[in-house]
């Protein structure tokens, strides 16, 4: 409990700033969503010491309505620290607070995914992960509503389903790519062969490494680790590698074996980066390398940043080590740099430590016992460097080129600089803050991360479908005059990334406002 309180206090400035955003007031209970069917409620007088003589209403679970007393839901209080709300695993969706407690273990995609929604506004997570919003919305509407919950204290999430372009693209994807079979899980199928190829190579590379550790075999293993990081752990943690939640969970845990943390990755990547892509205050990927690297002109500029396009290549081989120590720090802090671990279970937290033990046992302990320290340390160093460089270069290029950054006037600048968070078009933001490269071959080897635009629009779809989806996205963007960045090859986008890093390294700092300014003061 102490850890949760510490993390909550760390976020308080951002919460207050977001709470002041326009459009935050919760609608009356009777008018929240027209057309929503009536839900049974239990009325209970507030206990002594409550706020006035108000009445709290809470829906009874549909399956057991009337079978047992429903806990009272008092009005007011801090939703993270007040005991009145701590008894619930709450989330907020479009201005309404729900109790997820009874549904977590029944969530079709696994409890480890829905846990991300606990303690925050889950609207963007919910709407970007469900290809059939009418079905998912109907199930959500059956959950208990926490009347009197202080919704305005919770930072408002973007609303993807308010985006006209996102809705248009999603409708075409369902009709043209999946032809109605998404109801049977077609959107999470198709990557089984890729998973076998990745795991097969990684297993062969490890067998070679453990039988004869060296710089060469370590580098080959590092390629396997990077391939796991780009593909099966990435898509598994998104719930997109299989229709079976357990399979996705197991593939996601591969992140722990290669030196990362599946838990920390989900909070950092899905809660922070995916929802708020290239927002300098809310996207952890923008500021987590600062002050060593300046990825964005909204960050303060230091004299040495003018050389970052050169020295960054010396920092990239250290990425895996940064993950190792950063994951442990986040465990103690109860938050990554961009998201607090509100919904993390005790088992999920334990996997952070257990994963490090497993990783270093496989990388160091076993080959050390068989072959001694010299060959093992050389192989481990080569593994770490190779995996880190491949991951760093692949991740960095997708969001750090001029088309995806607001250095100059244009749609990215107007989207991220001139529009407050609550008023942004989420679909447009995903389109203009990412850049694609390559095609089908790159898609296979990167788990769809070369088609970053499509991945950000549809993180819960198997990457094997992204090439087909990319044609639809390009057409819909062109109809509306929305920029859609695509480079033919990886070398092309890497070269442009290097030039961008040089340009942003000398660019004047762009003043931030609102939530962004509050975040920058804490860097």
UniProtKB/TrEMBL annotation:
<dbReference type="InterPro" id="IPR012171">
    <property type="entry name" value="Fatty_acid_desaturase"/>
</dbReference>
<keyword id="KW-0479">Metal-binding</keyword>
<dbReference type="GO" id="GO:0046872">
    <property type="term" value="F:metal ion binding"/>
</dbReference>
<protein>
    <recommendedName>
        <fullName>Cytochrome b5 heme-binding domain-containing protein</fullName>
    </recommendedName>
</protein>
<dbReference type="Pfam" id="PF00173">
    <property type="entry name" value="Cyt-b5"/>
</dbReference>
<dbReference type="GO" id="GO:0020037">
    <property type="term" value="F:heme binding"/>
</dbReference>
<dbReference type="Pfam" id="PF00487">
    <property type="entry name" value="FA_desaturase"/>
</dbReference>
<dbReference type="GO" id="GO:0006636">
    <property type="term" value="P:unsaturated fatty acid biosynthetic process"/>
</dbReference>
<feature type="domain" description="Cytochrome b5 heme-binding">
    <location>
        <begin position="90"/>
        <end position="155"/>
    </location>
</feature>
<keyword id="KW-0560">Oxidoreductase</keyword>
<dbReference type="InterPro" id="IPR001199">
    <property type="entry name" value="Cyt_B5-like_heme/steroid-bd"/>
</dbReference>
<dbReference type="GO" id="GO:0016020">
    <property type="term" value="C:membrane"/>
</dbReference>
<keyword id="KW-0408">Iron</keyword>
<feature type="region of interest" description="Disordered">
    <location>
        <begin position="54"/>
        <end position="80"/>
    </location>
</feature>
<dbReference type="InterPro" id="IPR018506">
    <property type="entry name" value="Cyt_B5_heme-BS"/>
</dbReference>
<dbReference type="GO" id="GO:0016717">
    <property type="term" value="F:oxidoreductase activity, acting on paired donors, with oxidation of a pair of donors resulting in the reduction of molecular oxygen to two molecules of water"/>
</dbReference>
<feature type="region of interest" description="Disordered">
    <location>
        <begin position="1"/>
        <end position="38"/>
    </location>
</feature>
<dbReference type="InterPro" id="IPR005804">
    <property type="entry name" value="FA_desaturase_dom"/>
</dbReference>
<keyword id="KW-0349">Heme</keyword>
<feature type="compositionally biased region" description="Low complexity">
    <location>
        <begin position="16"/>
        <end position="38"/>
    </location>
</feature>
<dbReference type="GO" id="GO:0042759">
    <property type="term" value="P:long-chain fatty acid biosynthetic process"/>
</dbReference>
<dbReference type="InterPro" id="IPR036400">
    <property type="entry name" value="Cyt_B5-like_heme/steroid_sf"/>
</dbReference>
